Amino acid sequence: MQCAACDESGSRAIENFITVAGQQVSSNQWGHSINRPTRIIDVKSPDHRNESECNEPDRRRFLKIAGAAAAATAAASPLSAIARPDDDDYDGVLRVDGPEDTLPRKIRSLFILDRQTTYMNIGTTGSMPRRVLKNYNEYNRLVAEQPWDMGGEWGGFPYTGDLVARMAPQFGCADSELVISRNTTDGMVSVLHGLDLQPGDHVIATHHEHVGATSPLWVLADRIGIDVEYVDIPVFPLSEQEYVDAIAAAVRPETRLIVVSHITYKTGAVLPVKRICDEIAVPSGIVTLIDGAHASGMLNIDLHDINCDFYAASGHKWQCGPGGTGLLYVRDNASRVSDFWPGRKPMWAINSSLAHLVSIFGWQTALQYKGNDNYPALRALADSCDLWARIGRDRIEAHDKHLSTYTKQLIMASFDDPMLYSPDIPELTSGISSFNPFPDQTDSATLTNFRDRLREEYGFIIRTTNFEIAQGLGNVYALRISTHLFHDERDVEGLVDAMAHLYRRMSPSTPPPPPPTTN
């Protein structure tokens, strides 16, 4: 940390570091308990301070007095009351009561989600677990009480080393390869604008990418003159091979980069990113950047196995960390970029306070240090990751996919002719289900009204989305449902019942049915 009396800019700390380092439930007008509607249906379920010495005359006397005061209050230091996740007894909550591919229903007790509604929009933002939220508040209190060194609780500069060491193994990578970012877009922009892309370079993306990718790509095309090709990917695939073929067909000699989502945010399709890297990118010497906003916290990710060069992920969505947190993976200090692009600089650390010192610090520290950070949020993200590890990321993935599959089954059984936009093939299935029950797939007003009434009258919170089946065909609209570890089959059943009931109320040709019964 910098000495407050000698240096307010932060450069002294860096110089010194370089030297040293060489359930309440209610009913509504529908007649259902809002958070517990159930149904019976014939569908089977298949889970520093090396501070410069200022030599103030009274410094020793002050420290003696302060030391005595500190000893008297040590027991009441802010962190003494913080129950770290590894100290908290989760055993009773996490005990499995049913099949190993599901999670215990008691998991929902770890969250403070409003019991008057059923929240199924994790694809937009998740919910911090109760213990993570409590500790996050204490971390903020500690920084407010001891802003100089934060009680030494975050370790040495850049104050994230211990946190990264906790998280990296959970994502199949080394500490030196993982950066705690602000969100997925932060990571995507850092990579895309950091790479040495040049006029005429060909970049492949898909027509279902998020603006976190398309916006910086637009800037690069407009500013530098790169050629971005948005490839149509199948919306109704028969196998993952169709995605591989679509990307492979777009490769040219001048292709320098492939940017794809691990899970598309529009339809929830899981793209075969490992095959795209192994079979297309690496043999052709093409750099890969994966948008993993929806995969982190949902899928059991092994970044080394995926074999991509960069992977940007979210901390606040399916990982249920605080807002303004994310993860950025930089494979092996971007060494392969140098191999693929001989004669070019691999990249610049554009989003960094240490861009000129990468050779000293390495890419991980350079990209991590962007001036003062929200250290409580970063630590809370690590806490959330630790809880996921304790539950088991493989179990969470299985649970999310199971509920998503169940959701699709019930939708197909409950509507006459629904349009299902999410793949129902196991390897392509995620925790996102997108569909439209109405005949006119281009009618956004009706679908938005449906979404709003579903929340206001039935207590289920989902979102709408829009996309093109293929470029040039115009937008279609869909409802997007996100099912996660704090949901169970009863939530899915209640949601589909509510949607079917509302759909019939909004369809003039069909008389409204009686309210479904509850068990």
The largest sheet has its strands arranged as 2-8-7-6-5-3-4
Considering DSSP H and I runs of 4 or more, what fraction of the residues is helical? 25-40%
Shape: globular
What is the rounded distance between the termini? Answer: 60 Å
Structural class: alpha/beta
Radius of gyration from the alpha-carbon trace, in angstroms: 25 Å
Uncertain stretches of 5 or more adjacent residues: 1-29, 31-81
**Largest beta-sheet details:** 7 strands, mixed
Task: Describe the structure in your own words.
The chain has 519 residues and is of the alpha/beta class. It is 36% helix and 12% strand. The protein has helices at 11-21, 59-73, 91-94, 130-145, 161-167, 184-192, 211-223, 241-248, 273-284, 303-306, 335-340, 358-361, 363-368, 375-391, 393-414, 444-458, 489-505, and strands spanning 118-119, 178-181, 202-206, 227-231, 255-261, 287-292, 310-314, 326-330, 419-420, 432-436, 460-461, 463-468, 475-482. The strands form three sheets. The chain has a seven-stranded mixed β-sheet, with helices on both faces. A hairpin with a 6-residue loop joins strand 12 (463-468) and strand 13. Residues 1-29 and 31-81 have low confidence and may be disordered.
What are its keywords?
seven-stranded mixed β-sheet; four-stranded antiparallel β-sheet; 17 helices; disordered N terminus
TL;DR?
By secondary structure, the protein is α/β, with parallel strands linked by helices.
Helices and strands in order, then pairings?
Blueprint: H1 11-21, H2 59-73, H3 91-94, E1 118-119, H4 130-145, H5 161-167, E2 178-181, H6 184-192, E3 202-206, H7 211-223, E4 227-231, H8 241-248, E5 255-261, H9 273-284, E6 287-292, H10 303-306, E7 310-314, E8 326-330, H11 335-340, H12 358-361, H13 363-368, H14 375-391, H15 393-414, E9 419-420, E10 432-436, H16 444-458, E11 460-461, E12 463-468, E13 475-482, H17 489-505
Parallel strand pairs: 1-11, 3-4, 3-5, 5-6, 6-7
Antiparallel strand pairs: 2-8, 7-8, 9-10, 10-13, 12-13
Helix pairs in contact: 4-14, 5-14, 6-7, 8-9, 15-17, 16-17
